[in-house]
């Protein structure tokens, strides 16, 4: 009954404010979402909104009544009153009571949202410019999730797909009907992990860990994005969560553990293998475009004063600078936006991207870096 | 009353001696000249910040990056915010205070006229420094006007140093302006002008000035900490050195929340002058208006963390700040009810100042409602950092503060210039503005609820239709302001109908006792106030 009333009133308001044609094709309200909490948030939102609308209608009705009736052109004579203690007390006390009626449900919902105890699964979420890392506490699974939308769709007006800017290469996967605890932090600046359909928005603060939780009702794909300005590519830091039935999730997690373990073994094996220059350059280019181009730009020119150029200057063209180059990519540069990639990329990928940077854009140092070189450097470094 | 004025000495000759040309403006200590300088500077900044808003809206007209680079886009959002807050709205109010407060309380000038000169003249330099930082390699500040660390420290470009310096100068200017207002009001009221007889514009500015003195030093502190974190190896906001990035936000918003009231309390005063004038009926609930203003100012120090509900505060802190924030609705409601009651059974006419004041009441109230929604912590998690917030604060700042400034300009332009603002143009300006401002900001509520974050240069496809509408509204609103420029220029050029001393039938107050335009020196002899002017 209550829900229906909300619906009717909202629809009426929407139709009043926007042409009907728009209202049908557009999402113009909060989503109800996929969890009990998000549904409660939605109901609270509609409740507070309706209270505001009702008060607004009363106040504006009185005002427009005056504007229409009490105008000089209709011969209105001004009254002289300028105080009325009883009325003034009433309109101080009544709003106060209305506020209590709003604060009450808000308080209980907030306490519920804050309770992260008794979770079934924990995922550590780490934001960094401009991607998310997910690490499962209960499984040996850890990976990085970056935007999958092609840069040419953004910058070159290539046709945009349905989920433009809201698609990632590797979504977060969680089980339905389980309390999933999310630990949220950051490697660099402040980000904010937001999935509207879970009604979770929590800042990722560097050096501190925030907690949130969700229990998703229905399997599905849920999309969100970073909500705190985090630099140049803030708009390009989406979040995709796939909720699977618990059994399917279990299967996915086990497969993923195996796959990641195999990947690591494969990497060990490949350390002794030489890649050709062509292979290095091809792999390097794809890694570069996915990981480096956002700052250093696809043409290696960087952004003057913000992100250094790699083409024709700096460590990438210094023939004695190979070790410095590896160090920069593997360990990052303290106090700058340049982060450490040694745990984010495989040895092969590191080798390839460094080779690429040393030979692309007429840098042409001719240096070929192999996975083993990276391995040796990092071993020596430790 | 021991004022500097010799009450026994009658002069009829006002000695309008003043230097001419650039010297008059550079060396002036006259409150009217300084008021004009502030207002013109603010007008210039309004157009500068507005142009940046149009760059933002042009880029957001459709999905994809077409016009600017994301880094430049971030500079535009940052500069737009800084210029509108510190360059447009605040100097406009200081200009109004300079012009009107001495005339409203029957004082010959501001109490500290030389400091007054200085507090204006350092402002243009602050903005030249800040704007010129955009020419540096890597561009100007790109971390949002809220300059959250560590984006503004470790991860910012070297323009940050100029930004910090510019903010310091703006802060000094504001503090000096506030001291001047307080000293003037406390010491230079004409005999009989008791506190509870002061016009509400004077009262609201009096309270605003205390807010400024309280929080501008906090802003100065926090920008200095940003500077030392970036250049002198301190770690106030860096966890690696024992600091906390959230500390920045606590400090910033301890300044920032009172700051938003600094930008709205004088509006309340303006509207409280205009509505009674055009309703031809005394303001309803004068005393409760004063108390409500003081209550809002007091509460403004206890609500700062409602900007930070998603930072992971302890839940009981969140609850405290939610309750305190909701409480602000009570005194704000009192004000709105008082304005509506002032109109009730009045005899209203709808000249341009009244039109803007009425639009203020309605649109500011809408902004107040979205403010209540934002105060509700669990729901704020959904609204926070989306276009819903952008819609909210533009309703209170553009159709709130800026509309009240325009209302004030139309109301007092006859007194300033001696000429009536062109009524046809002014009404055209009003209708163009009030329609386009709603095309511009109302749909932002929807796109925010639908999930579009703020401060993004590109967005997902489901937001495209509404963004196109918003951008159209933005250009309509922006170009409508050229009509305002035309009205002001026409008055300054002394064209149109000459104004009498009291051009508005129902207007009350000492400023209407002096001729239009107001002579260079007013109230050399203080007037005597026998009864409340209301």
UniProtKB/TrEMBL annotation, chain B:
Database matches in CDD domains? Cyt_c_Oxidase_I
Keywords (alphabetical) are: Cell membrane, Copper, Electron transport, Heme, Iron, Membrane, Metal-binding, Respiratory chain, Translocase, Transmembrane, Transmembrane helix, Transport
In this record, what's one Pfam family?
COX1
Q: List the transmembrane segments.
A: 37-58, 78-99, 120-140, 160-188, 200-227, 260-278, 290-309, 315-334, 355-376, 388-413, 425-446, 466-489
Q: What is its EC number?
A: 7.1.1.9
EC supergroup of this enzyme = translocase
Residue ranges annotated for the Cytochrome oxidase subunit I profile domain, each copy included: 25-530
What are the GO cellular component annotations? Answer: plasma membrane; respiratory chain complex IV
Its job? Cytochrome c oxidase is the component of the respiratory chain that catalyzes the reduction of oxygen to water. Subunits 1-3 form the functional core of the enzyme complex. CO I is the catalytic subunit of the enzyme. Electrons originating in cytochrome c are transferred via the copper A center of subunit 2 and heme A of subunit 1 to the bimetallic center formed by heme A3 and copper B.
- What is the protein named? Cytochrome c oxidase subunit 1
What organism is the protein native to? Aliidiomarina soli
